[in-house]
Amino acid sequence: MDNCIFCKIVRGEIPARQVYEDELVLAFHDIQPQRPTHILVIPKRHIASLAEVTSADEPVLGRMLAIAQQLARAHGSADGFRAIINTGRVGGQEVPHLHMHIVGGPDPVGPMLKKI
Ligand code: AMP
Ligand code: ZN
Question: What is the third-level CATH fold of 5-104?
Answer without folding.
Answer: HIT family, subunit A (3.30.428)
